[in-house]
Amino acid sequence: MSLPSRVQLIDVGPRDGLQNEKQPVPAAVKIELVHRLQAAGLTEIEVTSFVSPKWVPQMADNAEVMGGIQRQAGVRYSVLTPNLQGFEAALKTRPDEIVVFGAASEAFSHKNINCSIAESIERFAPVVQAALAAGIAVRGAMSCTVGCPYEGDVAPERVAYLAGLMKQIGVQRVDVADTIGVGTPLRVQKAIEATLQHFDVDHVCGHFHDTYGQALSNTLAALQMGVRNFQSSVAGLGGCPYAKGATGNVSTEDVVYMLHGMGIATGIDLDKLVDAGAFISDFLGRKPNSNVAKAILNKRAG
Amino acid sequence: MSLPSRVQLIDVGPRDGLQNEKQPVPAAVKIELVHRLQAAGLTEIEVTSFVSPKWVPQMADNAEVMGGIQRQAGVRYSVLTPNLQGFEAALKTRPDEIVVFGAASEAFSHKNINCSIAESIERFAPVVQAALAAGIAVRGAMSCTVGCPYEGDVAPERVAYLAGLMKQIGVQRVDVADTIGVGTPLRVQKAIEATLQHFDVDHVCGHFHDTYGQALSNTLAALQMGVRNFQSSVAGLGGCPYAKGATGNVSTEDVVYMLHGMGIATGIDLDKLVDAGAFISDFLGRKPNSNVAKAILNKRAG
Question: Using the beta-carbon criterion (under 8 Å), do A290 and B213 form an inter-chain contact?
Fold first, then answer.
């Protein structure tokens, strides 16, 4: 087993997580969550989304949140930008990275954003161009790289196709997302392998959902391929609103516990991270959706 | 990655699981659970324990349960036997395998069974001898092989020591159990490596708890060492009554899902297994403690 000695985690809780809450979370709470994440040692945080509040009212406070964060040196704050209009609005808030997105499944692309994969990427081209011209990094989120709620299994060739399109328009690094959490280690490795046709391994992030409890074994399988960037969500916030039953971003706590147990550095203080997760979970009136957080909170309760 | 093409699962739910229920479960329900497990394709089932009902009232119906099972050819029914008296009682019920046990942690051994590791194994010697003389297989459950609730980290040397003692008294195969679920892949591999000093890999079973969400990544790490026997508990029944907060046998459903997703055969019908887990969970008045069972039941609910 050849494993990285250090892993970079991107916490997507404030955006991917809180976007899925029925009741919008106040900007002040989101800002506090970001502050707690960076205090815990997170150096990449997906903060918000510049989409129409008509579609995603949960992120209507995007500018307020970005403006309210006391930025910490060395931390990268990223935002989702679905189109040029969103990008222009995002630009004013000085994100370090923007995120564009596409699905490896045609059916998902059509149902989710009402166009083909190729069309979706074409629409993102000017956004990517504008971001790069403004000196802002660009990440591409590739959803449904293993399975699709409408199509079932997704072939690695479709992942390679999407990764190729992302590369063509100038995307600098990509997320290999198992959006509905159906992946298992060998299938996830095939999706990553397909992505490596177009991106260096250091420009690949694993994004695994825990719907079927597979996120950590998939993370281990990806680590064994040399992947060292992963996305996760504090307290396991969020999921996929488009796929019924497909809740379950893997919790950052569970990922950090495994990595530290394997001697892999993350720069994250697990106790402070559990505190951050407890803070937002308390606000939402539920327990953290994280085995590690629950075990540690139980232990603390003595 | 060199992986086995077939894995043998031992469901410990009826014993290790139901032993931890405050309210004893009626014998008829236990028998029905065993019937449903074998109907789902399980070929090894840990049925009950022949311990004093004073200590474990949940298993007081051991003979009734063993007597009530309609046995299926090719299925191995195992029972726990802590001493000769228990073994004599068990013998009348014709188990295929008995289970003796020991801890890799001295502190745990003292707190749990009030004697040293060496003493505990010495006491088991006549039980093992009697079982082998009667043509009954013998398995040794090794607890706390990674961490101990009283001692913290457990060194691989302690695992090797326990495995050696087990081998000496005639135990044929052993479980490497992470009783409190604190293990991560590399540490679990070290515990297995230590065990392999005394047992062939085909005589090693992985038994991982999911307390910190690590059971499946640990399973993957063990598979990669060639281990192909694993214990798990339908619906994630049970845990460890001796370690606070240490609930969490990994669910058989989650393990089966991962294995099948990797193309590894188990002979188990996942849908029927989910039914078996739903049956006992319904009886207990709660949801299965299994990501896969929840996801599949959600999906069925449409």
Answer: yes
Listed range (A213-227, B109-123, B127-141) with the worst mean pLDDT: B109-123
Å between B177 CA and nearest CA of chain A: 17
Query: How long, in residues, is chain B?
Result: 302
Tell me if A186 and B261 make a contact (CB, 8 A cut-off): yes
- Specify the pTM: 0.95
Is A115 a catalytic site residue? Answer: no
- Over the stretch B103-126, which tens digit does the pLDDT of each residue have? 999 999 999 889 999 999 999 999
Query: Chain A neighbours among B 160-189 (CB < 8 Å)?
Result: 181-187
Q: Are A266 and A256 in contact (CB under 8 A)?
A: yes
Burial of B273 (0-12, 13-18, 19+ CB in 10 A): buried
Nearest-CA distance A207 → chain B (Å) = 16
Q: Do residues B65 and B31 make contact, with C-beta atoms less than 8 angstroms apart?
A: yes
Domains and CATH numbers, chain A: 81-267+277-301 (3.20.20.70)
Q: What ipTM score was computed for the predicted complex, to two decimals?
A: 0.93
Kindly determine whether residue A254 and residue B212, on different chains, have CB atoms separated by under 8 Å. yes
A152: left (phi over 0), alpha (psi -120 to 50) or beta: left
CA distances (Å), A110 to each of A113, A140, A141, A166, B228, in order? Answer: 6, 18, 16, 18, 42
- Lowest-confidence segment of A137-151, A288-302, B26-40 by average pLDDT: A288-302
Average pLDDT over residues A31-38: 98
Measured distance CA(A258)–CA(A246) in Å, rounded: 23
